[in-house]
């Protein structure tokens, strides 16, 4: 089945599942004449309004604590997560068992793309909080047969000595913390040459797709490849890099319907032109989002052999739509 047909079928299944009970989207779907689905992806994009994070935050403020976006009764949900609040009021996002498993299947794709193998040890160098990302990484790694090593509640020096003792093949953390561990190792005389780390999986910040940052991490963790990934609490894991193509992020198009729109006009951006990423997760019925405005700027590129509708992201996440500044006609972002 062609990608567009596959996406449309999944989208319409999702809409039929959520339309009867989702109080946030039912009136929007009714206004778009889409309660029973859409005849094409183009019709969906033309009729369905964009959803913003500010709308979700205001909805939860008006209908505490979870808002009206839940498809099922609150007592059927088993996972609680919250956004970081870096761009406004944090929002709460819940998942039931089925939607959580859908997220874990996405993360399994990320692990496989990084070359993770059953029996590998993964060292999670962070403290577990309400942010979704590393919980999905942890649970999916366990399901794949990876040995998951939690390393929260430690100083950086203690964490490094713990890592050296365990010799994990994979380190999972933010880009800045991968750099911080390098500095601490230097200060405390800890040799990372024989750490056992062959992959540094980074997320939560754009640094993993910035060549200079990626090079510094790889140099500080000798013999390790840096693999980036992108996701959000609201939508889940969306794209991933790979050791052999670190400058490209592959989008999971079979799991998401993705649009890239020009920030000013919200018209479709051409291939190679930067724009804002708009997402619709196609299998997260418990807490759905349709045409969600991420605020993240990307540059879609069509690779040789790609079928229509499929693209990768050159350079990962370039920055935030509201952070871009123009200097002498050149778009610049703080991440650069």
Describe the structure using short key phrases:
single chain, 9-stranded mixed beta sheet, 4-stranded antiparallel beta sheet, globular, alpha+beta
Q: In words, what does this structure look like?
A:
There is one protein chain. This protein is of the alpha+beta class and 336 residues long. Helices cover 30% and strands 22% of the residues. It contains nine helices and 17 strands. The protein has a nine-stranded mixed beta sheet with strand order 4-3-5-6-7-8-9-14-13, sandwiched between helices. The chain has a four-stranded antiparallel beta sheet with strand order 10-11-12-15, with no helix packed on it. A two-stranded antiparallel ribbon has the order 1-2. Strand 6, helix 9 and strand 7 form a beta-alpha-beta unit. Helix 5 packs across helix 6 and helix 8 runs parallel beside helix 9. The longest helix has 17 residues. The model has no long low-confidence stretch (mean pLDDT 92).
Helix and strand pattern: HHHHEEHEHEHEHEHEEEEEEEEEEE
Apparent shape = globular
DSSP strand content: 15-25%
Overall strand count: 17
Helix content: 25-40%
Pairing-aware structural class of the strands and helices? alpha+beta
Mean pLDDT: 92
Low-confidence stretches: none
How many separate helices? Answer: 9
Backbone CA Rg: 20 Å
Widest sheet: strand ordering: 4-3-5-6-7-8-9-14-13
Largest sheet data: 9 strands, mixed
Distance between the termini: 39 Å
């Amino acid at each position: 089945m062609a990608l567009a047909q596959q996406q449309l079928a999944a989208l319409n299944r999702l809409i039929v599942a959520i339309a009867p009970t989702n109080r946030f989207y039912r009136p929007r779907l009714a206004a778009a004449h889409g309660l029973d689905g859409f005849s094409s992806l183009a019709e969906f994009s033309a009729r369905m309004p964009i959803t913003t994070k500010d709308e979700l935050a205001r909805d939860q403020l008006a209908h505490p604590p979870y808002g009206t976006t839940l498809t099922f009764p609150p007592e059927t949900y088993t996972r609680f997560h919250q956004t970081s609040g870096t761009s406004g009021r944090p929002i709460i996002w819940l998942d039931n068992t089925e939607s959580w498993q859908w997220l874990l299947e996405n993360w399994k794709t990320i692990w496989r793309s990084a070359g993770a193998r059953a029996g590998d040890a993964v060292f999670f160098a962070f403290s577990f909080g309400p942010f979704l990302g590393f919980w999905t990484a942890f649970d999916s790694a366990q399901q794949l047969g990876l040995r998951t090593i939690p390393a929260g509640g430690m100083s950086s020096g203690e964490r490094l000595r713990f890592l050296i003792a365990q010799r994990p093949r994979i380190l999972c953390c933010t880009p800045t913390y991968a750099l911080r561990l390098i500095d601490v190792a230097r200060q405390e005389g800890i040799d990372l040459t024989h750490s056992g780390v062959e992959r540094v999986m980074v997320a939560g910040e754009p640094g993993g797709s910035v060549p200079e940052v990626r090079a510094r991490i790889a140099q500080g963790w000798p013999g390790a490849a840096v693999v980036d990934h992108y996701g959000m609490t609201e939508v889940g894991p969306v794209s991933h890099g790979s050791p052999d193509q670190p400058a490209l992020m592959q989008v999971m198009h079979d799991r998401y319907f993705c649009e890239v729109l020009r920030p000013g006009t919200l018209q479709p951006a051409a291939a190679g032109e930067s724009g804002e990423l708009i997402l619709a997760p196609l299998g997260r019925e418990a807490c759905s989002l349709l045409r969600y405005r991420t605020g993240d700027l990307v540059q879609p590129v069509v690779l040789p052999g790609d079928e229509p509708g499929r693209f990768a992201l050159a350079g990962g996440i370039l920055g935030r739509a509201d952070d871009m500044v123009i200097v002498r006609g050149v778009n610049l972002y703080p991440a650069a």
